Amino acid sequence: MILIIEVKLRLTRQRKAILRELKKLKTHPTADEFYEHIRKRTPKISIASVYRNLEVLSLEGHVQKIECAGSQMRFDGDISHHHHLRCLKCGRILDFDPEGADILDKSLGEIRKLNKDVSGYKIEFTGQCGKCS
Predict the structure, then answer these.
(1) Does the domain spanning 81-133 belong to CATH 3.60.110.10?
(2) At 5, is the pLDDT very low, low, confident or very high (cuts 50, 70, 90)?
(3) 27 pLDDT more than 50
(4) Which among 23, 125, 118 is positioned nearest to 83, based on CA atoms?
(5) Confidence of residue 124 (pLDDT cuts 50, 70, 90)
(6) Which CATH number fits domain 12-77: 3.40.50.1000, 3.40.50.740, 3.40.50.620, 1.10.10.10?
């Protein structure tokens, strides 16, 4: 028999600082990029702390972890349901609201009625960002 215990980790001062700073960014940084950013405000923070806390915050649902095939994971402080565009030229991740996406969002409700196991979906849009096009 396997016993699963759900543990809510507390938001420490350091986690709160990481969350606050990530929510300010719209760049969807990698852990390394975020470390360089937060280190300016919190010089004593270690890269290991940034990696560990970003992982914890994503597991707890406080941040989104964006996994793109063949590239480093990126993090988003905006946990609302929204879409992303990955630039094929520079690799940037941008918030993206394509026309017709609301149809997909409405369809998810219908899919859930048929199959209770479906909890969401992720579609990776690719193309070129405004800087590269």
Answers:
(1) no
(2) very low
(3) yes
(4) 125
(5) confident
(6) 1.10.10.10
